[in-house]
């Protein structure tokens, strides 16, 4: 749905708060991830995976049948819960069944299973343009149902050996940090709510902005204090890793790569639509380089991780450099140079993919064997929160730059073409800002020739606003590059041991 929001809010309304369907999905994934390990120990990984698939199916059914944006957002949140459960189950379940030295190979193979859906932006565009966006929910529900059937029939993982050592189910419940989970997700959600609307929906000094920002800050501070002094069993155990400094650095890199990954993933389809034209095939093709670059970088980096047996510093450094340079070079995109942007998108994808899953795999190698689920949950949560915060920040910067560009370029184009009614000019600017350019044709005084001029002016305005997003990403990327230089050598930890024996 990241490539077709205009079709969705054209049908459902809610053009002023549609960004929350992406944020709600990400935050729900982050919220459930820390608890999946405990749920798996209580119920078994098989049943938790089944519940995750059911949550995705129900979430997509809600989305596909929604008659308003609020219900659609709720469906995306429920689907995010299922996504978090199943991603963690897949990564942790695979990691604990194979030797440390071969984890990269196996997780690379698992990653390749998403290959058929790399052109998902094109699929979504074609479905929405030629039929209805609701059929996307049908497709994803059917695919999730196939996964549910296969999981039910064939997934029987071995029992985890440490459950009884941790006091059985009662002991696991006592060790689940519900307070920490609530504080963390409420804090991030409130902070994001304030950030998403700050400065353009509401003034920075308004209660709508300050209350969630301050409340979010207090909750995040409370979470840190609770984890440090308030609980005996924190969400992030103090003896989690055999290489604490390397783990901390991988979390920093994961946060930043999540910010850049989800920002490009969610913002680039809009740029492809608003700057380069609305043809569904064209929009879909423009989404392919980043998708194929991401999976290429992911697979190559995972294979090299096992091939080099833990020599991670220069591997992650190279990926961080590619990510930072690629994101920065996306600022060079104009309405006239799309052919050059394809290569930049692919390089950016290789860099992001070379970090996003490989760093998570590194974390599973350097953690204690019984903590694989916990550290996998931690990396997913950090990545998703990084994505949610990064998306909110980048979207805020983008809108702040877009609004004045629209007023200048689109408003000026209206006057040049004889459209002088202030109400009509305001409506043209509003519709262009919401990407609802088709509706401009219905306004008084607008013919086909004037409409084409106004659309072209809107494309130029968008092209001037998007680069600021990528300027911001360079700052984040530079931190990732710097952090990667301090990663330690983990080759001594890469042996042929297996956590769970079949």
From TrEMBL:
GO terms for cellular component: plasma membrane. Keywords: Membrane, Transmembrane, Transmembrane helix, Transport. The keyword Transport applies. GO terms for molecular function: transmembrane transporter activity. Its main location: membrane. PROSITE patterns: MFS, SUGAR_TRANSPORT_1. It is found in: Membrane. It is a multi-pass membrane protein. Residues 1-492 form the Major facilitator superfamily (MFS) profile domain. This is MFS general substrate transporter.
């Amino acid at each position: 749905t990241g490539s077709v929001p205009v079709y969705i809010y054209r049908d459902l309304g809610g053009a002023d708060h549609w960004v929350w369907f992406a944020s709600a999905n990400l935050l729900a994934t982050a919220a459930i991830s820390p608890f999946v390990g405990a749920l798996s120990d209580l119920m078994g990984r098989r049943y938790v995976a089944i519940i995750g698939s059911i949550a995705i199916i129900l979430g997509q059914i809600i989305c596909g049948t929604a008659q308003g944006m609020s219900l659609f957002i709720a469906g995306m949140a429920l689907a995010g819960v299922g996504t978090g459960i199943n991603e963690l189950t897949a990564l942790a379940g695979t990691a604990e069944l194979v030797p440390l030295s071969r984890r990269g190979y196996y997780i690379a193979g698992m990653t390749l299973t998403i290959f058929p859906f790399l052109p998902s932006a094109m699929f979504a565009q074609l479905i929405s343009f030629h039929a209805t966006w609701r059929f996307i929910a049908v497709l994803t529900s059917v695919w999730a149902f196939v996964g549910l059937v296969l999981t039910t029939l064939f997934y029987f993982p071995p029992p985890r050996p440490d459950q009884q050592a941790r006091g059985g189910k009662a002991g696991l419940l006592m060790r689940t940090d519900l307070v920490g989970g609530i504080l963390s997700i409420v804090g991030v959600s409130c902070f994001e709510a304030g950030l998403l609307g700050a400065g353009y929906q509401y003034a920075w000094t308004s209660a709508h902005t300050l209350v969630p920002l301050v409340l979010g800050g207090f909750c995040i501070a409370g979470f840190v204090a609770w984890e440090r002094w308030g609980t005996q069993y924190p969400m992030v155990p103090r003896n989690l890793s055999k290489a604490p400094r390397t783990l901390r650095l991988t979390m920093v890199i994961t946060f930043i790569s999540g910010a850049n990954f989800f920002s490009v993933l969610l913002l680039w389809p809009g740029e492809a639509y608003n700057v380069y034209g609305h043809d569904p095939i064209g929009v879909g093709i423009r989404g392919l380089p980043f998708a194929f670059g991401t999976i290429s970088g992911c697979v190559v980096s995972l294979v090299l991780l096992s091939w080099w047996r833990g020599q991670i510093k220069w591997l992650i450094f190279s990926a961080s450099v590619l990510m930072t340079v690629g994101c920065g070079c996306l600022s060079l995109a104009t309405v006239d140079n799309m052919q050059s942007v394809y290569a930049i998108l692919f390089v950016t994808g290789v860099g992001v993919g070379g970090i996003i899953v490989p760093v998570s795999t590194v974390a599973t190698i350097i953690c204690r064997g019984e903590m694989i689920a916990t550290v996998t949950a931690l990396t997913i949560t950090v990545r998703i929160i990084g994505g949610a915060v990064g998306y909110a920040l980048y979207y805020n910067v983008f809108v702040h730059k877009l609004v004045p560009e629209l007023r200048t370029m689109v408003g000026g184009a209206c006057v040049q073409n004889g459209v002088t009614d202030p109400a009509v000019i305001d409506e043209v600017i509003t519709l262009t800002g919401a990407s609802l350019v088709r509706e401009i044709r219905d306004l008084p005084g607008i013919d086909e020739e004037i409409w084409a001029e106004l659309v072209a002016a809107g494309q130029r305005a968008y092209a001037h606003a998007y680069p600021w997003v990528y300027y911001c990403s360079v700052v984040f990327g530079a931190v990732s590059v710097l952090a990667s230089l301090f990663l330690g050598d983990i080759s001594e930890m890469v042996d042929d041991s297996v956590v769970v024996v079949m």
